[in-house]
UniProtKB/TrEMBL annotation:
Residues 35-58 form the Phytocyanin domain. The lineage of its organism: Eukaryota, Viridiplantae, Streptophyta, Embryophyta, Tracheophyta. Residues 1-24 form the signal peptide. This is Phytocyanin domain-containing protein. Pfam families: Cu_bind_like. It comes from Gossypium tomentosum.
Length: 98
């Protein structure tokens, strides 16, 4: 009986936190324009129109590729490897903090 009471109390304590997490929003930086240097996008204005909360996810839709290489003694590039393209959806989200 005491165990059920402890579980019930724990659930009552955790419920507000779980509810807050379920209300978290996902934002795409720049909305339909995305994250770009092309065009005239005011990201400060974009952010000013949002009300971010702890737990919200902010995604910046960019594509990332890495090339790893070294220069030899003559200054020529030795290509070591190419790490494939990663879409931002493959990366962990960034969490907005106040």
């Amino acid at each position: 009986m005491a165990a059920k009471r402890i579980v019930a109390q724990a659930l009552l304590i955790l419920m507000p936190a779980l509810l807050r997490l379920s209300l978290a929003a996902v934002y795409k930086v720049g909305d339909s324009a995305g994250w770009t240097t092309i065009g005239n996008i005011d990201y400060k204005q974009w952010a000013a129109t949002k009300t971010f909360q702890v737990g919200d996810v902010i995604r910046s839709p960019v594509t990332i590729a890495y090339h790893l290489g070294l220069l030899d003694n003559d200054g020529f590039l030795i290509h070591l490897c190419h790490i494939g393209l990663l879409d931002n959806d493959d990366l962990p989200p960034r969490v907005a903090r106040r």
